């Protein structure tokens, strides 16, 4: 369950009516009641009709929900995030949002975080400024999508006060051996672990060419990976396969 003020949620109404009732325990630490047990008690995460908090009268145990937060300067990581969401959404409610729009998370079952690799790691203000200058070069055929040079996943995670939940990390990086490229996903995972989040599936990289254009097969691969995330999330939410520490 995700308490995310101001979240836009593209997932289907069907899913919205089947969540928030009995939060799964697999990603939660004991000792604190699940804040999302009563949707009306919290800021609603999705309410397309504008009528207030989401509620459900569904009698069965609902599954967990997933939130994807991505950073993208030229659009590749955004496309990957959207494809991952498509794969997850086949079975599991999911929200996807740019880090620029993402509020601090207060409670969420599984958080998927993705970012482009800059200087072997997560972007910084200087690398985002450099990215903007790349986009001014017509020979590169890049369009700058970073709507804020001030905010990236690095800064967002450092503000993120969300222990107790599961995480999945991904990045985009150049199609070369990782030892030469580095990986933003590794940096994301390291930071989220420090915040006491737990890995749900191993991190993944999606590849761009040397001009930062996403390789064609990566969208399908991201969609398949999204399905795998949904399966792992569902399995982890079952008591017999709980990921509780
Ligand atoms: C300033 C800058 C530094 C970069 N450094 C790296 C790097 O160290 N390793 C790498 O694999 N890619 C690097 N890249 C390429 C990015 O990974 C690539 O632009 C990104 O994956 C595209 O994703 P986006 O369209 O979501 O921004 C760099 C890009 C920029 C702009």
TrEMBL record:
Ranges of compositional bias, category Basic residues: 12-21
Disordered as annotated region, ranges: 1-65
Pfam families, alphabetized: Flavodoxin_5 (PF12724)
Entries under InterPro entries matching the protein: Flavodoxin/NO_synth, Flavodoxin_CS, Flavodoxin_dom, Flavoprotein-like_sf
Organism domain of life: Bacteria
Domain Flavodoxin-like: 66-230
The name this protein goes by in its record: Flavodoxin domain-containing protein
Lineage: Bacteria, Bacillati, Actinomycetota, Actinomycetes, Micrococcales
């Amino acid at each position: 369950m995700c308490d995310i003020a101001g979240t836009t949620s593209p997932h289907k109404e069907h899913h919205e009516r089947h969540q928030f009732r009995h939060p799964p325990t697999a990603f939660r630490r004991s000792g604190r009641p699940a804040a999302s047990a009563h949707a009306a008690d919290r800021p609603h995460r999705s309410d397309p009709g504008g009528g207030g908090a989401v509620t459900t009268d569904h009698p069965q145990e609902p599954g967990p929900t997933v939130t994807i937060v991505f950073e993208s300067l030229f659009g590749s990581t955004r496309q990957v995030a959207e494809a991952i969401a498509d794969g997850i959404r086949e079975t599991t409610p999911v929200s996807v949002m740019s880090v620029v729009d993402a509020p601090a998370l207060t409670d969420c079952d599984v958080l998927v975080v993705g970012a482009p690799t800059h200087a072997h790691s997560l972007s910084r203000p200087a690398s985002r400024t450099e990215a903007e200058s790349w986009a001014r070069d017509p020979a590169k055929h890049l369009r700058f999508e970073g709507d804020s040079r001030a905010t990236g996943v690095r800064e967002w995670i450092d503000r993120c006060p969300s222990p107790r939940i599961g995480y999945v990390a991904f990045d985009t990086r150049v199609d070369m051996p990782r030892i030469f490229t580095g990986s933003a996903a590794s940096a994301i995972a390291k930071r989220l672990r420090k915040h006491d989040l737990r890995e749900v599936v191993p991190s993944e990289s999606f590849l761009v060419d040397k001009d930062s254009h996403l390789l064609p097969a990566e969208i399908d691969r991201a969609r398949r990976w999204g399905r795998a995330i949904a399966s792992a999330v569902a399995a982890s939410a079952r008591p017999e396969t709980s990921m509780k520490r």
